[in-house]
């Protein structure tokens, strides 16, 4: 059971601005039935002033998707298009008194529909269709979307990306990919949020933790694919491993080492480097 | 506002008689049945009396019943015992529509280096017998197939599956958590080696279940510790829960004969909703399902929205939509059946009990169709 605010409940039970606008000046459509939610936004726009005279919506989705759509229409009515474009998914969520973390993607869908509608009015390509690489095949989420939502909402973990965009919430195949995008994004982005300083481990603690992660997390996965791993040595933050069985000589070995490194960086310490012997 | 509870495949109300029976064991009779003194030790008799009642529900012998903490524990223990007692065998067979208690346990074994086969079902949720017989081999340690599906109510041919297993000399477990108490289950007639049942699905409280292990079948304990349950399940007995479970089984045994009246109410609900709502469809094989369950999809709208609108009227049901599954993926059962996404997200499961009244059903028939229409008006795909 989700903890919805009274505002979400109200807008879900009595949504405002439901329906179509006939001969709408702009229509933005995002999502799909397969994805589990979809939103069609209709705008009527004053050509002189560029002001949104009316906004209506149709939503296929859960309570928070319906409430987010309704909130969006309330937020943008009366604004000029440029003003409307400053409305972020956070504004939508905040106007609802907040959304459960797992439901933040509903507010992102609202923002995307707005962008799509305005692009439609201006004869531009909607941002979601600019040909950016699709990272999550299950929910059709592009790299651009992931980067943008991460920046706007200061998201640093893969789980947050899933909550906000659904990416990685299906088969999970793209989770490492999302991790890479986040590392790349926050490595180059100067305004990276201050990550909580991890507690400094003693060398002995670090060695023990590395051994444990390899034994309980990494080894079983490699073994499931017919491979195996042996911890050869630990020198400061340098971890030297031997790839065995199917992993030895496998053309994917480079990737394997990289993912082991990512895993150890996440669970032990961000300065770890892994080398295969 | 009165609650109209049509979510009995999730859990059930505790029968007043079961509650009454258990209360003394939460108050004055708080002893430990393993104790030497009479105050505790005499409770052993109450546990054994309950065991006999649970056994009677499925026509087992009392010493074939092991009390557990829940259906999930029974399922885990059964599959694990199959593995433990056949250490040279590395293959388990189950289905794609199994309860997570078996499904995720089989996946877990898959990650541990075992081979796990998940048998497919057809569009009506029916078991693929040919695929099953083809997947059995000399390496198969255990087959675990549910008796009836919790989401659709579809009943699997466990008698035939068990017969195949017996012929091939393979251990067979069935998760009968949804079937027991709703349809006749007789282990003297069914060729099953192990069977899971759960208390809270049949009007006992949560926290008690049982595993039937046929006499002569080797069993390796899952929870290890003291000598309770003749060394087959350690841990101090949940005496109050077990006593209530016994009482609930006694009531259920009497109730099974009245299943037709539950089915009549279910059919009344189903028929009316199909007639009064736009483009509905029933999921699962209606010719062969539990008498209390119907799973209906309302196309182009989303299940969580339906549930929460019904919630405003005190009506409780479940959905297979992604938003209610705790993940972003909708029901694994409906997906395995190949139900289109337009229908999967808008699926609602109604599960009745012997306590469901005709007035309650009529109220749902009155409340739900306008909700479906309103949500369709909201939907971009609604017209």
Describe the structure.
- The complex is a heterodimer of chains A (277) and B (383).
- Chain A has 277 residues and is α+β, with helices and mostly antiparallel strands.
- Chain A has helices at residues 6-13, 63-76, 81-85, 89-95, 104-122, 143-153, 158-165, 175-188, 203-224, 253-267; strands spanning 26-32, 37-46, 51-60, 134-136, 141-142, 227-235, 238-245, 273-276.
- Chain A folds into three domains: 6-126, Alpha-Beta Complex (Sufe protein. Chain: A), CATH 3.90.1010; 131-188, Arc Repressor Mutant, subunit A (Orthogonal Bundle), CATH 1.10.10.1100; 203-276, Fe-S cluster assembly (FSCA) (GMP Synthetase, Chain A, domain 3).
- With 383 residues, chain B is α/β, with parallel strands linked by helices.
- Chain B has two domains: 4-11 and 258-378, Alpha-Beta Complex (Aspartate Aminotransferase, domain 1); 16-255, Aspartate Aminotransferase, domain 2 (3-Layer(aba) Sandwich), CATH 3.40.640.10.
- Chain B has 13 helices and 13 strands.
- Chain A binds chain B through residues 2, 12-13, 15, 18-19, 29, 33-34, 36-40, 58-63, 65-66, 138-139, 162, 166, 169-170, 220-221, 223-224, and chain B through 110-113, 300-305, 308-309, 312, 321-323, 327-330, 341-342, 345, 377-382.
């Amino acid at each position: 059971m989700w903890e919805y605010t009274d505002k979400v409940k109200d807008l879900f039970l009595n949504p405002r601005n439901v329906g179509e606008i006939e001969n709408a000046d702009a229509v933005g459509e995002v999502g799909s039935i397969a994805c589990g939610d979809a939103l069609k936004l209709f705008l009527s726009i004053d050509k002189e002033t560029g002001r949104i005279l009316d906004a209506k919506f149709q939503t296929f989705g859960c309570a928070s998707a319906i409430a987010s759509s309704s909130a969006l229409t309330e937020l943008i009515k009366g604004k000029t298009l440029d003003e409307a474009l400053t409305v972020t998914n956070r504004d939508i969520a905040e106007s609802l008194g907040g959304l459960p973390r797992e439901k933040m993607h509903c507010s992102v869908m609202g923002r995307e529909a707005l962008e799509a509608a305005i692009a439609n009015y201006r004869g531009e390509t909607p941002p979601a269709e600019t040909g950016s690489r699709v990272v999550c095949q299950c929910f059709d989420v592009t790299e651009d979307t992931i980067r943008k939502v991460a920046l706007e909402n200061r998201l640093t973990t893969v789980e947050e990306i899933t909550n906000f965009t659904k990416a990685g919430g299906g088969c999970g195949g793209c989770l490492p990919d999302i991790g890479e995008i986040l590392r790349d994004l926050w490595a180059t982005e100067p305004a990276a949020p201050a990550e909580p300083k991890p507690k400094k481990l003693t060398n002995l603690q670090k060695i023990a933790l590395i051994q444990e992660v390899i034994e309980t997390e990494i080894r079983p996965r490699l073994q499931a694919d017919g491979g195996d791993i042996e911890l050869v040595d630990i020198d400061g933050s340098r971890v030297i491993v031997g790839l065995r069985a199917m992993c030895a000589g496998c053309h994917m070995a480079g990737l394997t080492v990289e993912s082991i490194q990512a895993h150890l960086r996440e669970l032990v310490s961000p300065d770890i480097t892994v080398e295969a012997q | 506002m009165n609650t109209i509870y049509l979510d009995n495949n999730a859990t059930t109300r505790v029968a007043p008689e079961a509650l009454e029976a258990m209360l003394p064991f939460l108050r004055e009779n708080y002893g430990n049945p393993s104790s030497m003194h009479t105050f505790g030790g005499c409770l052993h008799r109450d546990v054994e009396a309950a065991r006999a009642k649970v056994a009677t529900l499925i026509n087992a012998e009392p010493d074939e019943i092991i009390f557990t903490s829940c259906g999930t524990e029974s399922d885990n223990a059964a599959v694990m015992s199959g593995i433990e007692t056949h250490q040279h065998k590395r293959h388990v067979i189950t289905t794609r529509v199994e309860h997570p208690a078996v499904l995720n346990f089989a996946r877990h074994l898959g990650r541990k280096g075992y081979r796990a086969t998940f048998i497919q079902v057809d569009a009506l949720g029916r078991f693929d017998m040919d695929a099953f017989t083809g997947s059995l081999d000399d390496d198969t340690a255990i087959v675990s197939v549910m008796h009836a599906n919790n989401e659709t109510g579809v009943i699997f041919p466990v008698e035939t599956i068990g017969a195949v297993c017996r012929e091939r000399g393979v251990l067979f477990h069935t998760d009968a958590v949804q079937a027991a108490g709703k349809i006749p289950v007789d282990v003297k007639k069914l060729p099953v080696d192990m069977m899971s049942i759960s208390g809270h699905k049949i009007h006992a409280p949560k926290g008690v279940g049982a595993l039937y292990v046929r006499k002569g079948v080797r069993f390796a304990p899952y929870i290890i510790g003291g000598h309770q349950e003749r060394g087959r399940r350690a841990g101090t007995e949940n005496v109050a829960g077990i006593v209530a479970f016994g009482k609930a089984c006694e009531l259920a045994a009497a109730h099974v004969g009245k299943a037709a009246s539950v089915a009549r109410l279910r059919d009344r609900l189903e028929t009316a909703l199909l007639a009064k709502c736009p483009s509905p469809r029933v999921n699962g094989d209606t010719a062969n399902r539990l008498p209390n369950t119907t799973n209906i999809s309302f196309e182009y709208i989303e299940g969580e929205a339906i549930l929460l609108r019904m919630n405003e009227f005190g009506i409780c049901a479940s959905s297979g939509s992604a938003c209610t599954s705790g993940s972003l993926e909708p029901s694994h059962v409906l997906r395995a059946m190949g139900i289109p996404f337009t229908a999967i997200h808008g699926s609602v499961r109604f599960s009745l009990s012997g306590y469901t009244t005709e007035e309650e059903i009529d109220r749902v028939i009155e409340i739900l169709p306008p909700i479906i229409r309103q949500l369709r008006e909201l939907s971009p795909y609604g017209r």
